[in-house]
């Protein structure tokens, strides 16, 4: 092989280019090729093509590092960070692919299936050309579902299937996409309703075709996939769990250590919640106080009203934090709150801006048919999803695109780094005095408890851990979905629909949910170490500025890197 002077950043950028050429979901996320009307190739060949790109990129990285060794050159720190991330991410990606995990990746959130609809929410719709791309993508949706059917069928042939629980959940979501659950219009028909009248005939026909394809796929899940999946357990077992947890965290997980640490956090946070509940409703317990706030606390009625209210929460945070604790200027200031489309999972979520900021960052609230929204636990959630949480980190990364690899800020972003920052952002707002109202602070603590419960039950269910003595909840029993649901009902303020959606998510997306709390731990450890090292010279705003300019890191590197800032 010929020597090459390439660098990790150039290799990573080239990887993004190759993936974007193959995967229209990636290019649309990045804001590239707005005229593109393709759907993702969800066939076995489509997944294989992306795996081949990953292998070629790793070979190029090997060659670049050999070149440096041969010529006695050393990459700068930023290049080394990029190289470590690229190697770790692609190695973890290929481990999942080679195990066939993509052949059974059907769940209520973040699955390949969700891309065929989610891609539309990222598309521009300002011009006739934009709407023409929408029409083409709607027409191509049936082919994408055919490809995914082939992938799942290969999973059937290889006895790699998801649990029936996930199939039932997804079928319910698809009923909402098509309007079958209510008898109303499909999501696709609603999406094109705002198009110019001169294009509506074409778009309506394309939406009808997409809706029919989704309905057909839903029927196939019932008639073909469910019978084959019968008997597949909800829990995925140790080998697959550790593989998935590595992908979500960017580190080799020690499940016993994480499980024990989460129980320590559980007891500490529960004591804090009892104290805060007493401030809200003296003499009452935590659960009783939460029920009181849901019935009698501040609430907003109507989807549009709660959207406006949450937007105001973000706008106020931006104004308060800009120039004091962060630099929030230019396009970073723009972030939108939207209502999530029907058939989404139960948890709020965020989508980042395009690379040129022509599409802003967006937070989404799933309403699940709800019309009245108690706000006591929503404030910290919007700090998490918006500012200073996901939006500030993601938008700051995007603003650093001329210095970082596009891979570090987009395709290579590690879930636990992002979710850890967002959970750290909630804690920061508490530290800065934004959650002094007892009801709002109880809501913040309840959200902290949710992320702690996630570590406990996610590891517990998939690895069949025993519930420890002193837990106050079925000590000695092994975790099951029913026990996890009951535990969440007793220890967290979510309603039944949200609770069910959460448990479904953990079972279908193993290892992802633990990254919030484990990621926050890394952020806090890194900050504490930097503060100890610098003493009186430690400046929180300066530390935040440097931390947010790093790009993504896995948990194997995050705390140590933050400590050195």
Strand content: under 5%
User: Helical percent range?
Assistant: 55-70%
**Quick check: average pLDDT?**
95
Beginning-to-end CA distance, first to last residue: 38 Å
Continuous helix count:
23
Tell me the number of strands.
5
Strand order of the biggest β-sheet: 2-4-3
Keywords summarizing the entry:
single chain; about 575 residues; mainly alpha; two-stranded antiparallel ribbon; 23 helices; globular; DUF885 domain-containing protein; DUF885
Explain how this protein is built:
With 565 residues, the chain is mainly alpha-helical. The protein is built from 23 helices and 5 strands. A 3-stranded mixed β-sheet has the order 2-4-3. α1 crosses α2 (24-30) and α21 runs parallel beside α23 (555-563).
Task: Give the helices and strands, then pairings.
Layout: H1 8-22, H2 24-30, H3 44-70, H4 77-98, H5 112-121, H6 128-157, H7 164-178, H8 187-192, H9 200-229, H10 238-249, H11 255-280, H12 286-296, E1 299-301, H13 303-321, E2 335-339, E3 349-351, E4 361-365, E5 372-374, H14 379-385, H15 390-399, H16 406-409, H17 415-431, H18 438-463, H19 481-491, H20 496-508, H21 515-534, H22 540-547, H23 555-563
Parallel strand pairs: 2-4
Antiparallel strand pairs: 1-5, 3-4
Helix pairs in contact: 1-2, 1-3, 3-4, 4-10, 5-6, 6-9, 7-9, 11-18, 14-17, 17-21, 18-19, 18-21, 19-20, 21-23
Summarize this entry quickly.
The chain contains 23 helices and five strands. By secondary structure, the protein is mainly alpha-helical.
